Amino acid sequence: MSEIRSGQIAIIGRPNVGKSTLLNALIGEKLSIVSRRAQTTRHRIIGILTRADTQYVFVDTPGFQTRYGNALNQVMNRGVRQALAEVDVVLFVVEAGRFDERDRAVRQLVPSDCPLIIVVNKIDQLKDKARLLPFLADLAREGDFAAIVPVSATRGAQLDELLAETRKHLPNNEFLFGEDEITDRSERFLAAEYIREKLFRLIGDELPYAATVEVEKFVVDGELRRISAAIVVDREGHKAIIIGSGGETVKRIASEARQDMERMFGGPVFLEVFVKVKSGWADDERLLKSLGYE
């Protein structure tokens, strides 16, 4: 009989290498929001996968920031360091064909006694497939890694191989969560994240990073959830961009976010989304804490 294993696994990497896409692919649910823009993930997200005698508790971290020093980025970097201090295994996600000083800076954060698996993501996007094996060989010379596993998170390729390698380094433990649980995050938190994802996807490069979401009301009435949420921005000009002509942009954000919520929550959602200004919120630690950034 195989032994029961359970442990925490950090997913780290520089911004925009596909960490959140990887978590969602491993769990099979949309827990962590995804967009083409860097710095989409701002919170540590826990995703739980239970397979037979093994429970994988994944911690998706924000991309570690070396360029910007505002309070928001300091909070996110602190979250990365805290996650690394608490886990049993680290999945270090890099982009196929690309490894530079920013990746090396993230690598230096990992405790020397923690098993480190390199996850080479986006192998499907590598135009010259002949470059993959030499790239993997170069990576192997970067350090003493527990394993190097090439994957495509968007296509679900090689994920079973990644799980098998990860399992080798999990301790013999009873499960940390119930077998049917997929996250420790509340529906209220997930609602805010779904709105923020649509904000990033629909506004695009027009929107500065100084925007977040605050759920002001979350009421469960039988199967119906009544949610009121504010998109918080830094200045009036940003508010106008998000509202859009005749309110069309904010309506679309709300409509698409509501559809995601109904799929995840398994019932109807009445969602109200509005926009308000809180100047300097991204550089105010007290305000960040009130918005859920620890």
Question: How would you describe this protein?
Answer:
With 294 residues, the chain is of the alpha/beta class. It folds into two domains: 163 residues, Rossmann fold (3-Layer(aba) Sandwich); 104 residues, K homology (KH) domain (GMP Synthetase, Chain A, domain 3), CATH 3.30.300. 34% of the residues lie in helices and 23% in strands. The protein contains nine helices and nine strands. A six-stranded mixed beta sheet has the order 2-3-1-4-5-6, with helices on both faces. A three-stranded mixed beta sheet has the order 7-8-9. Strand 7 and strand 8 form a beta hairpin. Helix 6 crosses helix 8. The longest helix has 18 residues. It is globular and about 55 Å long. The N and C termini lie far apart (42 Å). The relative contact order is 0.15. About 4% of the residues have low confidence. It is a peripheral membrane protein. One of its GO terms (biological process) is ribosomal small subunit assembly. One of its GO terms (molecular function) is GTPase activity. It comes from Accumulibacter regalis. Its main location: cytoplasm.
**Shape, principal axes of CA atoms:** globular
User: Number of helix segments?
Assistant: 9
Strand content: 15-25%
Report how far apart the termini are: 42 Å
Which whole number gives the mean pLDDT? 85
Just name the CATH architecture of the largest domain: 3-Layer(aba) Sandwich
Radius of gyration: 20 Å
Largest sheet: 6 strands, mixed
CATH topology of the largest domain: Rossmann fold
Q: What would you call the structural class?
A: alpha/beta
SS elements, strand count: 9
Query: Which blocks of ≥5 consecutive residues have pLDDT under 50?
Result: 35-42, 64-68
Question: How many distinct folded domains?
Answer: 2
- CATH homolog superfamily of the largest domain: P-loop containing nucleotide triphosphate hydrolases
Helix-strand sequence: EHEEHEHEHEHHEEHHEH
Percent of residues in helices comes to 25-40%
